[in-house]
Amino acid sequence: MAEHDTPGRPGRWRSGAESKQRILDTARELFGEHGYGATTVRAIAKAAGVDPAMVFYFFGTKQDLFGAAVDMSGAVPPAIASIFTGGLDTIGERIVRTLVENLDKSGRTPLVMLTRSAPTDARSETLLREFIDREITDRLAALLGTPDATVRAAMVNVQILGLTVARYIMRIEPIASASVDELVERFGPLVQYCLTGPPAA
Amino acid sequence: MAEHDTPGRPGRWRSGAESKQRILDTARELFGEHGYGATTVRAIAKAAGVDPAMVFYFFGTKQDLFGAAVDMSGAVPPAIASIFTGGLDTIGERIVRTLVENLDKSGRTPLVMLTRSAPTDARSETLLREFIDREITDRLAALLGTPDATVRAAMVNVQILGLTVARYIMRIEPIASASVDELVERFGPLVQYCLTGPPAA
DNA sequence: GTCTATAATTAGATAGAC
DNA sequence: GTCTATCTAATTATAGAC
Predict the structure, then answer these.
(1) What is the sign, positive or negative, of the torsion defined by CA atoms of B115, A166, A105, B171?
(2) Does A103 fall in a domain?
(3) What is the mean pLDDT of residues A132-141?
(4) Tens digits of per-residue pLDDT, B128-169?
(5) Of B120, B171, B189, which is closest to A35 when you measure between CB atoms?
(6) What Pfam families does the database record attribute to this sequence (chains A, B) (predicted)?
(7) Is A165's CB within 8 Å of B165's CB?
(8) Chain B: residue nearest A112 by CA?
């Protein structure tokens, strides 16, 4: 994890920003692994090798720290953008591939953090809903343009949530240890079906 | 389910069993609403109108209370049994209908309780995985009999988890306020596709 | 059976020395 | 900027009176 050793910059920067970054990285890791409620500020501080008081010094409250950890404005959009570049007839595969590939890289992603925290933390629930709506649902619905676009986009949300919970949180087999290609092969058509499937009813 | 009465009869023998039942009902309600970690014994006691100490008197520990709340052996199987009575070609609809109808009745069902608690509580995670495997995956896989039966059954699990999280925990629209029939119409074919869909790869 | 009192632990947060 | 020390509040859990 967080191999953020300071740059050997000449003159070496007075450590402040470095500690802050380490705290943030560690927070992402622990929040992603145990959720908001089950992660203590003390645990974060210990894992980051700093004093608990410093966490509050930099971030004010636990809630603010979580907000900072979840906010990856700029880091996520590019990945999601790739979903929308390409034909509508293969978008199912691209959604699944992008989702799984990004989440596999680390559990520190906002989606996992929020999905783990949402069930017991009202604020996380709101954040997650907004995140999904803004980054996925709205764009998908706009892309489709059909009358039932909203319902279809929501069905994709169900796939994303189900897949995230099954693979990264509950680790249900054989979903958890399947390869990216296997998942794309299985869930790609399923997501495609949600969007461009049969009768618009 | 269980409408605790509180008989207005003055002088009624204070039945221990009644208090115990009230505690259990209240525990199911709160665990289902906030998950294991975010539900305190005190809150349960207060909502049940008894003393916190009594909760421990009856159930020993918080964990044991949760175990008792989650254990509905005998109450769930019958509902699930109805899924497996009927043709394989319409099982998708039956799965969705049975799931949604039962969960709509109350949030105190084991599935919702466990799904809400699993992300932050390791024991709940195990319980949920075992519950799903035993009650659904194993039976579905056995019913199919195909070589990829396990994967297909797991795909159904993803649907169930996704649907449960979206409708009952995160309350994503328009999934949350959709009618049972709408959901059956939308997700029935999807689940059916998981099980008896295209090429067995 | 029910409740009071309390032990033991742990959480988030703050003040102030250095 | 960093840490020691501490405050306050909440939690699970137990002992024992009635």
Answers:
(1) negative
(2) yes
(3) 92
(4) 999 999 988 999 999 999 999 999 999 999 999 999 999 999
(5) B120
(6) TetR_C_16, TetR_N
(7) yes
(8) B119
